[in-house]
Structure formats: C-alpha cells, structure tokens
Amino acid sequence: MRVPRIYETAGQPWQIGSNIHLSEDATNHVGRVLRMTAGQQLELFNGDGNNYAATIVEATKRSVTVKIDQVATNKSEAPLAIHLAQGISRGERMDFVLQKSVELGVTEITPLFTERCGVKLTGERLLKKQQQWQKIVIAACEQSGRSVVPQVHTPLQLQQWLASAPAGLKLTLDPYAAKPLRDLADSPQHVTLFIGPEGGLTEAEVQAAATQQFLPVRLGPRILRTETAALTALSVIQYQFGDLA
Question: Where is the Ribosomal RNA small subunit methyltransferase E methyltransferase domain (predicted)?
C-alpha cells in the first residue's frame, strides 16, 4: 500500500524523534479525508528537498500529531532549472498547466497578463487566485513525489515581467518561428519558457520578448492549444537537457 505524502509548513528544523503537530490543512487531509489513525505511516515534506518518514501518534478530525522516524534526501529534482512564464488562461486550463508542469519538473512559475489574456484579476481576487494556484502546485508535489515546492510568483503584466526576466536560455513558443525547439544545441542550466494564453501572443509581444533576448522556437507544423504547447515544450526541454528519458 502506498504511503500518503503530506506537505507541511516547515516551522522549526525537523529531527528524528521530533513530534510535529500538523497544520489545519494537513490535519483535515489526514484526519477527515484519509481517515488515518494512530500507528499508521505517512511521509511528510516541507519544501527543503527531504522526505520525512513519520508515524501518527494521535489523530482526530481536529488535531493530528506525528513523530519523525527517518529523514532521506529526495533525489527527484531535475538538474535543469525551468522557469515557466505562462499567459493566464481561463478556468481549468490554467490549473491543468500548473499541475502538469510541476509533474514535469518546473522550478518556478510566473503567471502573466498579456494582451489576449481575457482574464481580469485584481486586488483580493488576484491574491486568492495566486494562493489557489500555489495549493495546486503543492498537491502536484504530493502526487508526483517532489519535495521541493515550485513557487507561483505574483502575476505580472508582460512588459513588467520582461524588464526583469531571468538570465539563461530564454525561449518563446511561436508556431511561425524559423527554428524548431529540437534544434537547440546548448546545454543550459536554466531555461525560461514563455507561453502565450489561449489567443496567443501578438506580434508586438513577440517582438518585445525578442528585444530581451528571448529566442522564438516552434514545436512543429501544427498550432497547439496553450496547455498542450506548454506541456509539450517542457517535455522536449527535459528530454534534451534534463532528466526525462
């Protein structure tokens, strides 16, 4: 039987023998959803890259306490750091991209407002949406076996983000680009992948990215939906430069 993996905020450094009182979210999942009881095993992670084997000491619907039994380094992280800059899509499409990109090994995500974005979020609604996206990322880490949690950055306007885009190999997907993604010959340590929303990028946005050293590349002869494009590109990048094979 598979041992459940649970994310818990770090707090104090965890050591073998330490008792950990789980947070409200983790308690709800362990006590109410999974209905686990004292003596059962689970695996905790807190984002530091380790797995913590633990035993439940006490479990109710309102409180769960576990004891740390073992600590092991999680070696599931890819050697390649990938920053996904994703044009915000409507509803479940964005959630799907976040979930699957975590499974494919992205290390950080910046949602972007672009000209054809079609999603309006400000103030409290924007904050809640960012928190929701971060929870989706955490759940994907629980499922996929990762112990480093990618950060979902505060959503930005495209021009604002381009002005401070990170160093390394920077790619923009463009179905009309001259160069296919498979022809990249570099061996980068960091890749920034910029994907447009459902309506794609405008020519002005492609040019703005080019002025910041983003290289336009294509995936093939067909035009892909934004969620398909992101996951296909991530798979190709991890196959060529990362640990997917």
Answer: 77-238
35 residue type, one letter: R
Is 218 found in the same domain as 172? yes
Are 109 and 137 in contact by the 8 Å Cβ rule? The answer is: yes
CA atoms within 13 A on the CB side of 56: 23
Q: What is the CATH number of the domain that holds 131?
A: 3.40.1280.10
Give the predicted TM-score (pTM) of the model: 0.92
Give 21's contacts (C-beta < 8 A, 6+ positions apart): 63, 64, 65
SS3 state of residue 57: strand
Verify that 108 and 166 share a domain, yes or no.
yes
Residue where the block lists tokens 């381009």: 162
Task: For residue 33, give its domain range.
Answer: 5-73
Residue 115 has a CB neighbour count (10 Å cut-off) of 16
Per-residue pLDDT of the chain (245 residues; tens, 9 = 90+): 689 999 998 667 889 999 999 999 999 999 989 999 999 999 999 999 999 999 999 998 889 999 999 999 999 999 999 999 999 988 789 999 999 999 999 999 999 999 888 778 778 888 999 999 999 999 999 999 999 999 999 999 999 999 988 888 999 988 888 888 888 867 788 999 999 998 888 989 989 999 999 999 989 888 889 999 999 999 999 999 999 87
Domain boundary among 42, 73, 104: 73
Say which residue the tokens 């209905």 belong to. 35
Bridge partner residues of 171 (DSSP): 193, 215
Token pair in block for residue 102: 């975590």
